[in-house]
Design a protein that fits this description.
Mean pLDDT: 80
Helix content: 25-40%
Low-confidence stretches: 1-54, 322-342
Number of helices: 9
Order of helices and strands: HHEHHHEEEEHHHEEEEEEEHEEEEEE
Structural class: alpha+beta
Radius of gyration: 35 Å
């Protein structure tokens, strides 16, 4: 491959090489082609770049890489690779500026088949940004079910944040950063290191046919599993978004709801706003319902035993708030006594409000008032104690006086 051709090749692949990493064992080697395709032209013995023409305004150093020279860099790489070996994408994301969903899926899938990372070595050069590093890290790993380790290599762009802490920079590169890193990768010392890892990898496969077969099968298996992980996550995200939207709609609906009272006996409560819809219940005169919407077609959407239902609006009228009179009656001389009808209440029973009653956060007449429960509303009883019913109220625990339910 001509020198200019290698630059063009790298230009199309650098984002994966820098951000996603180079995994020899997975056969997604993106720059090993350099050794396979380089021509027979004589190369310099120093670290001068094999790509002389690059559009960068940042001076690219020609110094040879440093091996395991920075303890904090080595620690970051060790933590990152350790998390990668177990598919711990939460930790990986915490050590980098970003980690896309597809890369998370890839690493989680990869960890099912490869692990036991060891023998880390970090080869560092000065990066394009101030106090940054570009590095190649070599390590050994095992394919599940195999005993011979395989060499692997990853590239990382490491920067410091405002507080001085190191992180793996996986954001899009500027034009200067791209050109700078491409030239570093093409320098002879890095190119030779990459070439050596590839040769060691191929030698391990040639010496063990079972290992070679396992390595060749990995790419398809990992890609398949990663796709399944990604699809499952996307489905979960869609379901979570739909649930959040439904919750928001329910809260908005509850905030705009009003209490209405039925004026007639045996009015059909229907599953949808049509006289042809299934009747799911009948009214009693005086029953109180939460009205979510008074529709233009003459129907009202109401709450019926925790389910949205519909009733003709002509049979409903607004309920006056009588919580003040109910509150004063809570403090009467018999307030602490249980009515005879409430004595047999058991946890899990459905209790019905027989008179409008305050719903409170605690079992006390001085407890914070949450709302008013109106005649006809039903709730699930959690517990009955000292004249108070602990109930489930809009998904939360609340309390009403037992004298006002049956």
């Amino acid at each position: 491959m001509a020198k200019r051709g290698f630059k063009e090749y790298l230009s199309g692949k650098y984002r994966y090489f820098i951000i996603g990493g180079l995994f020899v064992v997975l056969l997604v080697v993106l720059i090993i082609v350099w050794r396979k395709n380089k021509n027979s032209s004589t190369e310099s013995e120093d670290t001068a770049s094999t790509i002389p023409e690059l559009e960068t305004t940042v001076e690219v150093p020609k110094d040879k890489y440093e091996e395991n020279a920075y303890a904090d860099v080595n620690s970051l790489v060790s933590s990152y690779l350790g998390a990668m070996s177990t598919g711990d994408t939460v930790t990986m994301a915490s050590l980098s500026s970003s980690l896309s969903d597809d890369m998370k899926a890839f690493y989680e899938a990869q960890a099912k088949y490869v692990g036991n990372y060891s023998n880390y070595n970090v080869y560092t050069k000065k990066g394009p940004a101030e106090n940054s590093y570009f590095l190649l890290a070599t390590y050994d790993l095992l394919i599940e079910g195999q005993t011979t380790p395989l060499p692997a290599l990853i590239s990382l762009y490491v920067c410091r944040n405002d507080s001085g802490s190191l992180y793996i920079n996986s954001e899009s590169l500027t034009a200067d950063e791209e050109a700078y890193i491409l030239e570093l990768v093409a320098q002879k010392d890095f190119a030779d290191l990459i070439s050596q890892v590839e040769m060691d990898y191929n030698s391990a496969l040639e010496a063990d046919s079972n290992l070679a077969a396992a390595a060749n099968a990995l790419k398809d298996e990992i890609n398949k599993d990663a796709q399944e992980i990604l699809v499952a996550k996307q489905q979960k995200d869609l379901e979570a978004a739909a649930e959040a939207e439904a919750q928001a709609q329910a809260e908005a609906q509850a905030a705009s709801s009003t209490q209405v009272k039925c004026t007639s006996e045996n009015v059909n409560i229907r599953a949808s706003a049509s006289t042809d819809a299934e009747s799911i219940g009948k009214t009693k005169a005086g029953d109180v319902y939460t009205q979510y919407e008074k529709m233009e077609n003459g129907w009202s959407k109401i709450d019926y035993n925790g389910t949205e239902a519909y009733i003709k609006s002509e049979f409903l009228e607004p309920v006056e708030d009588t919580s003040a009179s109910e509150s004063s009656s809570e403090g009467g001389e018999n307030a602490g006594e249980q009515s005879s009808s409430s004595k047999n209440f058991k946890p899990g029973d459905k209790i019905t409000v027989k008179e409008n009653v305050n719903v409170r956060k605690s079992a006390s007449e001085t407890g914070e008032k949450i709302s008013t429960a109106y005649r006809g509303e039903q709730f699930e009883l959690i517990e009955l104690s000292n004249g108070w019913c602990k109930i489930k109220y809009k998904g939360e625990e609340a309390f009403v006086k037992a004298d006002y339910v049956e």
